[in-house]
Amino acid sequence: MPIHHPLAYLPSPPINGFHLGPLYIHFYGLMYVVAITAAIIITRRRWAAVGGDPALVGDVAIWAVPFGLVGARIYFDITTPAKITPAHVWWGPLAIWNGGLGVWGGILVGALVGIWRVRRSGADWRLFADAIAPALLVAQAIGRIGNYFNQELFGKPSTLPWALEIAAPYRPAGYAAYKTFQPTFLYELIWDLALAAALVWLGHHKKLRPPALFTLYVAGYSAFRIFEETVRIDYSQYILGLRLNFFVAIIGTVAGLAWFVFSQRAGGGAVPADGPDPGTPSADAEETGDAEETGEAGADGESKASSGASASAEQ
Question: 58: which residues sit within 8 A by CB, 6+ positions away?
Fold first, then answer.
């Protein structure tokens, strides 16, 4: 077994929480609170930039967040029942502070509830989906920090300089002799932030029909999980010798790409997926300006300007 230099790997966390009076605050849960807060702040700014009411973001979060957590926990309980802790107690399946949230269930249930709330408000759920897509990735990246403190979601044994030390009680069966492992949660954290930046860039520089950014979020995140599921060694249900989530990730990737193609081929002209830049004049403003210039040209132009203003108002 190789000898590790103490600075040749990432150390395992000495604690996974702290006491606040009689309460014990788990870093895992704390990271999710920070993640949700960050997602709300980012989405409010992006939604306001496309002319939406920022207050709607809070209303959607009140519904989508708890239902998303329920969906994530249900997915975990169904797909990995052997990892429910503590076991043999009625509240074990609810103990999310011990880890165990399936992102697929959270995305599905949270998205459905979020769409319902946005539609009820009369806003365009497609624009809202594009506004929230990068924020979700940032939230997922922050949430992965909680996995570090729980010493979970790591990969195969490794001696890479960035390998993660895992304490003996957290090592899977058959890996007790190994000390350091690939930090797959860290790989995902980096990918999530990079994909979030790419979606923001696309929204500002490419004309795409909503919900293009959300569809690419689904496809991009799922595509990375295909790779990640080939590296992870934590407990999972297996189908045909491959992890269950490997197949779920393939479905998510194909579904996201198909949704993207369908959304771009739908009727109507392309519009910026990220909405107009708040710092640039809108199309109506430009038409009004053109109409005013035409109006200055003379009586004939004045008539055309008036017609143009009426057409703009009808749009």
Answer: 40, 44
CA distance 281 to 47: 18
Burial of 96 (0-12, 13-18, 19+ CB in 10 A): middle
As given in the structure block, the two tokens for residue 304 are 């055309």
- CA gap 315, 303 in Å, rounded: 19
Per-domain residue ranges of the chain: 17-265, 283-314
Exposed/middle/buried for 287, CB within 10 Å: 0-12, 13-18, 19+? Answer: middle
Task: Over range 183-201, report the average pLDDT.
Answer: 97
129-176 pLDDT, tens digit per residue, is: 999 999 999 999 999 999 999 998 999 999 999 999 999 999 998 999
% of residues, the chain, pLDDT over 90: 60
Confidence band (pLDDT; 50, 70, 90) for 90? low
Spatial separation of the C-alpha atoms in residues 207 and 274, rounded to whole Å: 8
CB 14 within 8 A of CB 26: no
Structure tokens at 85: 């802790």
